[in-house]
Amino acid sequence: MFRKILIANRGEIAVRILRGCREMGVRAATVYSEADRAALHVRLADETYAIGPAPSRESYLSIEKIVATARAAGADAIHPGYGFLAENAAFARACGEAGITFIGPSPEAMEKLGSKTAARHVAREVGVPTVAGTLDPLEDAAAALAAAKKIGFPVVLKAVAGGGGKGMRLVENERETAAAWRDATSEAQNAFGDGRLYIEKYLLRPRHIEIQILGDHHGRVVYLGERECSVQRRYQKVIEEAPSPVMTPELRRAMGEAAVKVARAGKYANAGTVEFLVDAERKFYFLEMNTRLQVEHPVTEMVTGLDLVKLQIRVAAGEPLALTQEDIELRGHAIECRIYAEDPDNNFFPSPGKILQRRIPTGPGIRIDDGVYAGWTVPNEYDPLLSKLIAWGSDRAEAIVRLERALGEHYATGIKTNVGLFRRILAAPDFRNAGIYTRWLDDFLHQPVKHATAATADGAEEAAFLAAALWHLAEDGRATGGALRPHSARSRWKLEGRRKQLDRVPDRQ
Amino acid sequence: MTLTIEIGGKAHTVEIRSQAAHTNGRVAWVVNGRAIDADAVEVSPGIYSILIGGNSFEARVERDPGGLRITIAGREYQARIRDPRVWRRNRGSAAEAEGQQSVVAPMPGKVIRVLVKAGDEVEAGKGVCVVEAMKMQNEVRSPKSGKVERLLVSEGQTVGAGEVLAIVS
Fold first, then answer.
1. What CATH number corresponds to the domain at position A9?
2. Is 0.90 surpassed by the pTM of this model?
3. Nearest residue of A to residue B71 by CA position?
4. If both were cysteines, with which of A13, A96, A111, A348 could A81 make a disulfide (CB 3.0 to 4.6 Å apart)?
């Protein structure tokens, strides 16, 4: 087993991996950029090292700096988390050359399965169905247009190196092609340092269902059930759950075995995810493989009782998997919400800033994978994921009510979060009936917001008046009582009198 | 003292009678002429635990562009405290804004692309610039149809939240 692992990431996933290391008695070293000096993954670490300025290109994406830091720290392994360098074969290779174990697949497996276009070749070879589209990266917008005309609109442009919905654009017709190409390629270039794109037929109302697999260095590959991630906004997963509400044991076996076939073809050893689109007839199509730990891995952990981070570390250390396919049983239902610093009332624009206060829900069936704390300033430079809230229940209905209960307890002030959006989604009949598909949320958000007309508890509105009044008085006190203000010595009584006079001004509105 | 609080476009008068109103604790107060006995404690800055007739409410108050936003049990109330001094100022600026609209950056970030030139005719909803923040590229759109009167940013420029990017008339 490793003695020290360097975690080449930040935020909630760095904290998650750090927790796994700690439980295994492995020393956890983290890295941080100038923007992250006070971040939670720095505060909780055993060791931590500065790796440069805030822009990720000069810090979290710098292979050279991270490998040099790991060597200097004497780490015998590097865990890349997700995003950043997690799917970068050059990074995996650089780790190997420096004599450090990369906790992930071999660079060869990553190239074969992690590249979306190469993986589609593999899927075809092993007889796993894929969605119509180009197998190779496209040269330019003109080539994309030609390909789109061949397979028929609507199509999706996707980054070869993509993930997390970045560098992806839906193209409904010929006219949109050039602009979509320009946006997607520039976003991909920015996010992954690779602007190459390919094209795929866009299926009508498909569900996104993915299979978690786990392979070791001794030839064993198992599947750990599925996750349904159909609730997405602009191709970004918003809510994930396990199991999928439309899954049957037969379909699970068929998809699980297909996923294992793809992984075996690439001699894959690590935790990995094989993503599929599933249509209304429950036919599934290989989409891509993520050769890393996923953001939504906790829902699988909750229903399988396994710790994927620790298993990843054991596999990387060369241990054989101690479980067979028959050992894997699914219990209950888990749902995850990704809590982002973004403003749902303002087109979901990121809302960086200082978190003033915060309450984290707890209680039965609740898990929080957290990356922030009250007093932390959410930086502008990175993905605005704050934490993940996961609820487990004995069935889907219980998981939903637990999640609703927990969301009601949660708050974070000083920044905007998307928590209100989850409450809306969980209350939507379509979600409750599992009538969801990958564009469901985008459609749902186009509908006018139905303001809760149901009667709230007696006095809620009065409580709002009182809170507003008390806040106003306190604010007034702070504004006039501040030592920096020259007229701070002004008598409250005088102010009160003046206010009363002003209140007499007739209402002209 | 009496305040006028607007919630959902309706004005309500709130009179706080207790002398201890500025601090925490029991408050004797009158809403729209009806006396209510409440117990309010500021449990943490801007967060109030309010007990009214046996019901327990937790209210969070935050500043909002439109005034105050109060959240109780997941339900949001948009409130404005009517203060004649502030009201007069607002009215003046509202008149100026007529005819001309500013396109503002909704969040801090970097302008990575400018999609219009000064003098261009734009339609409402057409992209003016693309601002990148937190690795997401977001198109900032024109609030109205008209002519780009002034363009105040260039590609590569860093902008703050609320910063004016362009003026459309």
1. 3.40.50.20
2. no
3. A464
4. A13
